[in-house]
């Protein structure tokens, strides 16, 4: 076959016709070939036509497929938007329902406490129950009295704690609504301020104040706005904003800011509380030239709103600010900077902020030399004369000009893809993490557990904080949005661990998402191991205990402010990690434990980690059926006893959730000294034998578990008023007779306040089975209360009574053959009084009117308490003084029960409130002009008065004078304290004299 020349050329018409066709070039060539063949073969032409046909069909199929994909993509976008809106709507509806539920609960409670409900209830049962009519009449009288004095009642007591809680609640609700682009702070910051001439607060109205901010070449703007209201409430003020290009066209940001149809602008509500400053991140659209903002009132309901200071503005460019603090870093910083000069990220997208702190060692000259040789890299050098890595970082953070920040130590270095890999995953609401390699002094690279942990987390759709806990609170190996970093401050007062506090604060405040670099092997932080590193210091009490406690104190402060359990758990994990240093040190140096406990006490540290440490050193087991946090006088007194012991103890107690409320603050009383706290789930009872037996046996079993992991305790200590405590302790003493047992009686148990015998049956067989009663004993007394006293008499090594009268009285009815043994083991220990700082922990406050004299009474009004002589004395006062007295009663009883038989003249001057929490009670004790306490009346009922009012020990710690209405030779009468003014309980003239004395003494002061 002869060779033929084939000329190849492109048909210009075909090229033009298919200019937008991806296969136009191919078809154009084929057409040209077809037209230019001078000696073509029919077979070749046919083949070429077939090829053209196939290409056309393929092109058609691709065009159809592309169209289908486009339609499918649009459908998916629509579905995504639909589900997004549905989710937002459901979320809004859920919040509305939650608010409605709270309002409904409040309404139900309001109805239950309303006068109409109480009156209706009394009418319904007036003829259904015995004494119902009498109760109805009392209720009517009480309601008339309450209505008459409603204004006085509302004015009288102002609880700062409750007010703060209400304020905090509204703040939390506001915080829950805000997105991550907005947060609260207590400081105003910015590098520019608008209006720059503002010298005083500007009043705001609905029209608002407009500002235009030029933002050419800027990626983000941080606004700092301080507005306040006379009566702060949600939605009183807002800032609205728009983004414009150079042609004044409106642009949309990548952040889905709330949008107002009425304003036709995006907006954010502003917090109007004093000292609360709104910080708002504006992420600018591409080509944005101007941001227009307006600050105005909204739903202010005529409350005066003002702009307190110029609006702070900080502009951030797109890129990464690298923060490098250096101290005496001449020998190491060169390699660090060298690694940053050769990054694959464009030099236009990052800056190096080097802060030299402390004495000069030539580092500055070296850096300036490097800067001259590498003018393409943006390096800024700062000098702090005072040494301090936290101050150095804070300075660099303030100066950072890019919208993301990363930290590198001067003796470390990074791989060449480090910045580019981090920046590729950057997002305004995420921390981007990468791996760490350790580098030895010999240049050997060692993989770290940090990188291994990140590698395990790579495949997770959502990375949780505990998935990457190793790297979250270290400064290295992460890229962070600048607005988060700038809102958080390193604490210079911390000598170590400042990074743990800083990152815990940032994470708690913003709750950022977690992202990882695409390839952990390319973006690597090289951590050079050094003998003088802070994290590799030698063990010492200062570093391992004192400095760790300093860090823990700040973490506890963050924990108390944590808004969600997710971040609270994270912060607690960091507290536990710091506590690990302390535990390991004290394991090695147990003789240092007293110094540790002294620090705990001095700093008022209250956290679960203390219990783990205390448990290692506890030698006493306390058995207290009722204990904090349950609200009960017996539990509070036992907490004070533990504090008085001044050494670590473990505690076994019972759940009281069915019969007592809780107050977590009660745990603070004994917190520095408590190790294990074991809550049992026995039946909750005062005198039912089955429940008491259950608690005793569960305690016995728990003791066995404890002793499988530790040595035998030196002592057990039990306290009753709740009888179960002594039965459990007796069981343990029988099993472990070498343990010393101290048994305390709060009051006589066998005989009640009227002198009658209490009786509940127990099983004598149980006592025999546990060797508490000899097998051949003929004892027939099966009274539970008898044995609650007898078992300690028989087996305890020490018997604790709160006063001598109590001991004498209990001896008077004890078995005669036991009296000498009881007396030989008896110890008198009055109920403890807490240190003064406990009286200042609450912000509760008694709001008093001028020229009035306020007497406080806390507790129940039992029939045998001598209240009437005091009221009689009050009525005998001159009118001008009588009208100036106010008696404030805090009690669990109903007002009508308390005010029964009180004259109308006095009734209107008595204000009744429910019990307050314990620390509120202590604080209020300081606020009264006098505190009233009354002995129980035991005359003609007992040989003496064995009862010491439980409140007296708390009153004695206050600053207030105490008016004590006493029986002759009662325990109260024998207290020697200048604050107590004694009056004969039955002598109204004596009471009158002392009321006048206290009244005039108060007025003179």
UniProtKB/TrEMBL annotation:
Residues 321-444 form the Glycosyltransferase 2-like domain. CDD domains: Glyco_tranf_GTA_type. GO terms for molecular function: hyaluronan synthase activity. Its EC number is 2.4.1.212. Pfam families: Glycos_transf_2. This is Glycosyltransferase involved in cell wall biosynthesis. The keyword Coiled coil applies. PANTHER family: GLYCOSYLTRANSFERASE (PTHR43685), GLYCOSYLTRANSFERASE 2-LIKE DOMAIN-CONTAINING PROTEIN (PTHR43685:SF2).
């Amino acid at each position: 076959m002869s060779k033929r020349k084939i000329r190849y050329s492109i048909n210009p018409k075909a090229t033009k016709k298919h200019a937008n066709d991806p296969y136009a070039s191919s078809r154009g060539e084929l057409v040209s070939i077809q037209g230019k063949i001078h000696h073509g073969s029919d077979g070749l032409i046919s083949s070429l036509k077939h090829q053209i046909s196939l290409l056309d069909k393929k092109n058609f199929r691709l065009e159809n497929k592309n169209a289908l994909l486009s339609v499918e993509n649009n459908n998916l976008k629509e579905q995504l938007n639909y589900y997004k809106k549905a989710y937002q709507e459901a979320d809004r509806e859920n919040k509305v329902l939650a608010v409605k539920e709270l309002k409904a609960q409040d309404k139900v409670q309001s109805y239950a406490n309303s006068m109409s409900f109480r009156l209706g209830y009394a009418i319904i049962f007036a003829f259904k129950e015995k004494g119902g009519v009498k109760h109805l009449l009392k209720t009517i009288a009480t309601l008339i009295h309450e209505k008459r004095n409603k204004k006085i009642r509302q004015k009288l007591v102002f609880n700062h704690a409750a007010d703060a809680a209400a304020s905090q609640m509204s703040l939390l609700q506001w915080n829950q609504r805000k997105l991550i682009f907005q947060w609260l702070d207590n400081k105003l910051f910015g590098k520019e301020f608008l209006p720059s001439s503002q010298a005083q607060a500007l009043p705001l109205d609905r029209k608002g104040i407009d500002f235009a901010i030029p933002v050419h070449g800027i990626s983000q703007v941080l606004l700092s706005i301080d507005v306040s209201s006379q009566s702060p409430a949600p939605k009183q003020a807002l800032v609205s904003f728009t983004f414009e290009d150079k042609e004044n066209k409106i642009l949309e940001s990548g952040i889905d800011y709330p949008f107002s149809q009425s304003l036709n602008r995006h907006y954010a509500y502003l917090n109007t509380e004093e000292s609360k400053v709104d910080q708002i991140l504006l992420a600018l659209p591409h080509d944005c030239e101007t941001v227009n903002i307006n600050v105005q009132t909204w739903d202010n309901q005529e409350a005066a709103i003002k702009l307190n200071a110029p609006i702070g503005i900080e502009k951030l460019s797109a890129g990464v600010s690298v923060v490098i603090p250096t101290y005496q870093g001449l020998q190491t910083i060169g390699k660090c900077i060298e690694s940053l000069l050769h990054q694959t990220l464009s030099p236009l997208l990052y800056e190096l902020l080097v802060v030299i702190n402390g004495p000069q060692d030539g580092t500055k000259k070296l850096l300036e030399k490097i800067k001259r040789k590498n003018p393409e890299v943006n390096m800024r050098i700062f000098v702090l004369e005072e040494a301090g890595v936290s101050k150095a970082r804070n300075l660099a953070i303030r100066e950072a000009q890019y919208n993301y920040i990363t930290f590198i130590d001067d003796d470390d270095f990074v791989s060449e893809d480090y910045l580019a890999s981090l920046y590729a995953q950057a997002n305004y609401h995420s921390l981007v993490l990468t791996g760490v390699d350790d580098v030895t002094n010999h240049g050997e690279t060692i993989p770290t557990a940090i990188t291994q942990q990140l590698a395990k987390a790579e495949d997770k759709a959502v990375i949780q904080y505990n998935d990457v806990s190793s790297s979250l609170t270290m400064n290295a190996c992460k890229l962070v949005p600048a607005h988060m970093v700038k809102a958080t401050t390193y604490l210079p007062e911390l000598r170590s661990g400042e990074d743990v506090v800083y990152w815990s604060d940032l994470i708690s405040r913003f709750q950022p998402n977690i992202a990882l670099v695409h390839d952990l092997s390319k973006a690597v932080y090289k951590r050079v191991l050094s003998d003088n590193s802070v994290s590799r210091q030698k063990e010492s009490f200062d570093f391992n205990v004192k400095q760790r406690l300093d860090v823990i104190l700040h973490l506890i402060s963050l924990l108390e402010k944590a808004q969600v359990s997710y971040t609270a758990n994270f912060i607690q994990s960091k507290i536990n990690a710091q506590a690990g240093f302390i535990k390991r040190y004290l394991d090695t140096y147990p003789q240092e434990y007293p110094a540790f406990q002294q620090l705990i006490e001095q700093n008022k540290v209250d956290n679960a980690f203390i219990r783990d440490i205390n448990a290692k050193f506890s030698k006493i087991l306390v058995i207290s059926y009722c204990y904090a946090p349950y609200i009960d006088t017996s539990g509070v007194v036992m907490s004070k006893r533990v504090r008085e012991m001044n050494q670590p103890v473990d505690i076994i107690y019972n759940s009281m959730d069915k019969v007592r409320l809780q107050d977590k603050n009660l745990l603070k009383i004994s917190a520095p000294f408590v190790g294990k706290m074991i809550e049992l789930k026995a039946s909750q009872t005062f005198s039912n034998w089955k429940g008491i037996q259950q608690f005793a046996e569960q305690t016995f079993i728990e003791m066995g578990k404890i002793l499988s992991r530790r040595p035998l305790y030196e002592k057990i200590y039990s306290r009753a008023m709740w009888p179960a405590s002594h039965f459990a302790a007796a069981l343990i003493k029988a099993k472990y007779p070498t343990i010393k047992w101290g048994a305390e009686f709060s009051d006589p148990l066998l005989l009640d306040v009227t002198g009658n015998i209490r009786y509940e049956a127990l099983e004598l067989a149980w006592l025999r089975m546990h060797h508490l009663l000899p097998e051949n004993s003929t004892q027939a007394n099966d009274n539970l209360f008898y044995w609650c006293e007898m078992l300690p008499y028989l087996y305890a090594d020490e018997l604790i009574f709160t006063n001598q009268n109590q001991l004498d009285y209990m001896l008077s009815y004890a078995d005669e053959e036991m009296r000498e043994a009881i007396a030989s083991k008896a110890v008198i220990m009055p109920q403890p009084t807490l240190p003064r700082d406990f009286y200042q922990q609450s912000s509760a406050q008694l709001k008093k009117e001028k020229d009035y004299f306020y007497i406080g009474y806390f507790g129940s009004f039992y029939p045998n308490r001598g209240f009437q002589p005091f009221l009689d004395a009050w009525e005998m006062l001159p009118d001008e003084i009588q009208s100036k007295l106010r008696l404030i009663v805090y009690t669990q009883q109903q007002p009508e029960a308390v005010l029964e038989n009180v004259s109308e003249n006095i009734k209107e001057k008595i204000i009744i409130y429910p019990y307050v929490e314990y620390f509120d009670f202590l604080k209020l004790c300081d606020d009264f002009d006098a505190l009233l306490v009354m002995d129980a009346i035991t005359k003609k009922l007992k040989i003496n008065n064995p009862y010491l009012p439980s409140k007296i020990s708390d009153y004695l710690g206050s600053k207030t004078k105490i008016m004590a209405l006493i029986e002759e030779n009662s325990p109260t009468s024998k207290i020697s304290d200048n604050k107590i003014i004694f009056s004969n309980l039955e002598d109204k003239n004596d009471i009158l004299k002392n009321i006048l004395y206290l009244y005039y003494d108060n007025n003179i002061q």
